[in-house]
Amino acid sequence: MDSCKNKEITFDNETLARFAKAMGHPTRIEILRFLASLDSCYFGDIHNELPISKATVSQHLKELKDAGLIQGEIETPKVKYCINQENWEKAQLYFEQFFHSQQVKAFCCK
Amino acid sequence: MDSCKNKEITFDNETLARFAKAMGHPTRIEILRFLASLDSCYFGDIHNELPISKATVSQHLKELKDAGLIQGEIETPKVKYCINQENWEKAQLYFEQFFHSQQVKAFCCK
DNA sequence: AATATTGTTCGTAATTTTACGAACAACAAA
DNA sequence: TTTGTTGTTCGTAAAATTACGAACAATATT
Q1: How many CB atoms lie within 10 A of CB A62?
Q2: Does residue B8 come out as left (phi exceeding 0), alpha (psi in the -120 to 50 range) or beta?
Q3: Looking at residue B40, what is its pLDDT?
Q4: Closest CA to B71 of B39, B26, B25
Q5: A–B: how many Cβ contacts below 8 A?
Q6: Would you give the DSSP letter of residue A60?
Q7: Which window residues (14-33, chain B) lie with Cβ within 7 Å of strand C?
Q8: pLDDT over 70 for what percent of chain A?
Q9: Domains of chain B by start residue, with CATH
Q10: Main-chain phi, psi angles of A103, to 5 degrees
C-alpha cells in the first residue's frame, strides 16, 4: 500500500496555469521549440536564435526553469540548457486532460 | 487549386503564446473547466463558482474572449457564455503539435 | 415613473512583466 | 597578471496584469 504515492498527479488549476503562463510569451515558445528540437544546447546558441539582449534571454530562461519546463547545467564557462523531460511530459498530460475534459456536458442554465 | 485556403493553419508562436497566456491564471483555468463541462451558462453562474468580484470575473471573461477561447451572447438581461468550439479545437491542436515537436532531435552543442 | 436584476465599464492602486545596459562572477588563456 | 569568454544579476523604466468598488446601461417589473 502507498506504493503509488509518487505517481499521483493532481490536475490542479494552479499547476496548469503555471505551465501555461510560462508558455505565454512568443519568445519563450520559441525557446521551448528550439530546445525541444535538440538534445541540449548552450545559452549562446539560444541567444543566437533570438533578436534580444542576453539579459532578457537569461530572464526568460529563468522563468521557464522556475516553471519546471527546462533545466540548466553549468559546463564552465558555458551553461547547457535542455527540456526537463519529466515536467514536459507532465505538462503535456495536463494540457491533454484539460482539452479533453469537455466530453461530458450538461446544462447549467434553466 | 486554392481549395484548402481556409483550412491552412500556421503554428506560429504568437498564436500559441496567446492561447497559453489566456490560460495562464488559475481563475481563468477554472472558468474554462467550468464552461467545458457545460454546453453554456450565464455570467451569474460563473460568478457563483468563484470567490471574486463580478468586475474581476468580467475582466477574466473578456481576456478569454479576446483570446478566442470563449464567446458570449446577450440574452437580456443575462449574458450567456460558452466555449468557442472552433478555437478550442485549434488551441488543442496547437498544444498537441507543440508537445510532440520534440520527436526529432539533434545536437547543437559541439 | 420608480425599482430591481444582470453584467459591463470606469477609475484606481498594487503588483508583475518585459526589456535593456552595465556591472559582475567564474574560469581559461596569453 | 592581464585579457577574453560566457552568462547571470542588478538597477531601472515602461507597460501590462490583477483586483476592487462605484457608477452605469439595458431591460423587466411593480
Answers
A1: 12
A2: beta
A3: 85
A4: B39
A5: 120
A6: H
A7: none
A8: 83
A9: 10-100 (1.10.10.10)
A10: -60, -55
